[in-house]
Amino acid sequence: MYRILLFKFTSIDNIVLKEVITYLRSKNFEAHSITEITHLNASMFNWKKLQYDAKKIMDYIYEKYSGLPYDSIIGIGCIDAYTENEEYILSYSKGKISLIFTYRYRDNDGGADLSKFIERVKKEVLHGVGHTLGLKDCTTPNCVMREVKNLKDIDNKGLNFCPNCMYLLNIHYKS
Ligand SMILES: [Zn+2]
Ligand SMILES: [Zn+2]
C-alpha cells in the first residue's frame, strides 16, 4: 500500500483536509497528515507579480521533506503561484512531492460552493499523487491524470484513474 503524507502551507479549512484524506483512503492509499502549517518565507514571493515562485517553494519543500519515509508527499496551500513558463499554475510536481495551489480553485465570481471546491482539490491531489508515483499526464477524457490549464478542465475530468493509469500504478503496487 502506498503511503501518502499531506501537509498544508497556508491555513486550510479542516473539512477540506479531512475530505481529501477520506478520499485517498477510499482509493486504498494509506494517508497521514501533518497538523502544523509549514510556513513559506518571503524570499519565495515575487513582489512585482504578487505571486509565489513555485520552483522556489518546491526547492524548499524538497529539501525539508523528501527524505521522509513516504511514497508521496502532497502539500496544499491557498496561494497564487507561477513558473518560468506559466503565468499561473494550479499544481506543481517534482519527484515524490506535489504541491496543490488552491488560490484559483474558486470561480472568479466566488460562485463555487464548498463541495465544488473540495471536488476540485480532491482531483488535483489525486493527480499529484499519480505523478509522485510515476504516472505521466494522460489523454483519456475522463482520467484524473488529464492535464489541466483551468477550472473548466478540472470540472470536465473524472475523480478516478483510467484503467491504463490504474494498470501502470499496479505494476509498482506495493503489498
Ligand atoms: Zn499533470
Ligand atoms: Zn489515465
From TrEMBL:
Its cofactor is Zn(2+). Pfam families: Peptidase_M54. The keyword Chaperone does not apply. GO terms for biological process: proteolysis. InterPro entries: MetalloPept_cat_dom_sf (IPR024079), Pept_M54_archaemetzincn (IPR012962), Pept_M54_archaemetzncn_arc/bac (IPR012091). GO terms for molecular function: metallopeptidase activity; zinc ion binding. Keywords: Hydrolase, Metal-binding, Metalloprotease, Protease, Zinc. CDD domains: Peptidase_M54. It comes from the Archaea. PANTHER family: ARCHAEMETZINCIN, ARCHAEMETZINCIN-2. This is Archemetzincin. It comes from Stygiolobus caldivivus.
